[in-house]
Amino acid sequence: MEKESFLKRYGLLVITGLVVGAAAVLLTAFGNPANMGFCIACFLRDIAGALNLQRAGFDAEQGAGIVQYVRPEIIGLVLGSTAVAFAKKEFRPKGGSSPMTRFIVAVFVMIGALVFLGCPLRMVIRIGGGDLNAVVGLAGFACGILIGIAFLKNGFSLRRAYRQSMAEGLIFPGLMAVLLVLSLTMSDLFLSSKSGPGSMRAPVLLALAAALVVGVLAQRSRLCMVGGIRDAVLFRDFRLLSAFAAILVAVFVGNLALNKFNLGFAGQPIAHSEWLWNLLGMVLVGWGSVLLGGCPLRQLILAGEGNTDSAVTVTGYIVGAAIAHNFGLASSATGIGTGPVALAVVGGFVVLAVISAVNLQKLEG
Q1: Fewer beta carbons under 10 A from the terminal one: N or C of the chain?
Q2: Using one digit for the tens of pLDDT, what is the confidence trace for 234-252?
Q3: Do 113 and 119 form a contact (C-beta atoms < 8 A)?
C-alpha cells in the first residue's frame, strides 16, 4: 500500500523529469546548442528575433543575426498542453488577475534570465552538463524564491482570475498553431540565423515531437521549476523537487554517455563566469516567478490550458527578450552585456519590491 502511494505521489513527476532530461540531451545531440536542449528564455528570445523584435548580431549580407529562429519547441510545448487539456476536459479559460502587473514582472524575469543566460530549466540542464556557473545561478534562484515566499506568507496576491470565453482561451494556442504553419510554409516571413545559437537547431519534426510529448507530460504532472522549492519550503511537499532531480539525473547520464560532460566554470557553452551577475540574474528570475505563480515553462503550459494571464506573461517574456537585446542587457559567452545591466537588474529588484508590497492582502487572523 505504501509502495502504491509512493508511486502515485511521485511516479508521474519522476517520469516527466526523466523524459524532459532525455529529450534535452537528444535535441542537443541532433543540433540544438550545447546544454540547451530546452530553454524557455532562450527560445522565446529566438522567436522575438524571428519576428524582427530584436536583431542581435545582425548581418546585412546574411539578412539575420545570431539569435533569430522560430523555435518549434515552444510551439510544441503549448500545443501539447492544449491537446491533453482538451482530452482531459481541463481546458478552462480564465484570466483577469492583474494582467499588466504580470506583464511587467515577466519583462524583468526575462531580463534576469538573459543576464544569467537561461531559464530555470536550462539552469538544471547546464548543471547536468557540468557547468558550475549554473550552480551559482541555482543559489540565486533559491534566494529569489525565498524572498517571494516571504511576501506570500505576508499575504501577497495578484487577486483572483475570472472565467473567460472559450474563444479568449484559444487565442494564444491558436497563435502558436498559426506561427507553426507559417514557419513551415512561408519561412521567408521570418528572420533566421545563419550563425550563432539561432542557427543551431534540431530537425523541426524531431523538435516539435519532443516538445509535444514534454508539453503533455508537463501539463499532467504540473511540472514547475519554481514550485519545487516553493512547495518544499511552504508545505514540506517535495514532489515537484523529485522532477527537478530526475531532469538533472537524466541530463547527467546522457552527457556522460555522449562524452559531453564538462565539469568546471571556464569554457562552458553559451555561458559566462561572472558569478555576481549569474547570481543576481537568477535572484530576479526566482523572485519574479514566485509572484507570477510559476516558472517560464509552467507559464507556457498554463497558456496552453487557456489561462490568459499566463498568455500575457509569455508575451511579457517576449518583450523582455527584445528589450534585453536591444539595450545591451543580455549576456554572451564573453560576459555580461554592454548596456546598463546593473541599472536594469537593480531596477528590477525595486520594481518587484514595490509590486510585492502594494499587493499584500490582509491575512485573517
Answers
A1: C
A2: 999 999 999 999 999 999 9
A3: yes
Per-residue confidence (pLDDT) for residue 363, from 0 to 100: 60
Nearest of 330, 333, 41 to residue 196 by alpha carbon: 333
Q: Cell 512561408 sits at which residue?
A: 186
Distance separating alpha carbons of residues 247 and 224, to the nearest angstrom: 12
Place of cell 497558456: 303
Q: Which residues contact 149 (CB under 8 A, 6 or more apart)?
A: 230, 233, 234, 290
C-alpha cell, 303: 497558456
Nearest residue to 295 via CA among 75, 88, 92, 113: 113
**Contact by Cβ (8 Å): 331, 116:** yes
Q: What is the distance between the alpha carbons of residues 250 and 210, in angstroms, rounded to a whole number?
A: 15
Scanning the chain, the segments in alpha helix (DSSP H) are 2-29, 40-50, 72-87, 99-116, 120-128, 133-153, 166-185, 204-221, 225-235, 239-257, 275-292, 296-304, 308-326, 341-358
Handedness of CA 157, 163, 166, 171 (dihedral sign): negative
Amino acid present at 84: V
d(C-alpha 191, C-alpha 178), whole Å:
16
pLDDT tens, position by position, 20-61 = 999 999 999 999 999 999 999 999 999 999 999 999 998 888
DSSP code at position 338: S
pLDDT above 80 for 3? no
Cα separation, 187 vs 190, whole angstroms: 6
Q: For the chain, how big is the Rg over CA atoms in Å?
A: 19
The x, y and z cell numbers of residue 94, run together, are: 480564465
CB 309 within 8 A of CB 99: yes
